[in-house]
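Contributing new records

If you add data, match the layout below exactly. Sequence lines come first and carry their own label; structure lines follow with theirs. Keep one chain per record. Anything else will be rejected by the validation script.
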Amino acid sequence: MSKTTAIEAFIDFFNVFQERTALQMDDNYTFDMVAPIVNGTTNDLRYAINYFGSPVTKNPNFGRPTVYQRPFNGRMGLRFLF
């Protein structure tokens, strides 16, 4: 427009290939009150017991994705610089 002003247009696209990547997984094996398994591995979870000595109630969503990448979207803009 002049030496001290300008107009700028822009377009941004995000997730162009519609990837549905899992960003967060449910890592709560149980919601029961349990003691920690010292030096335990994932295989030892099946032997976990609650404070009353009963087997724990497994969270049905354990290991499943809870948050996914956002779907395709974009934005357009116009800037006036001075």
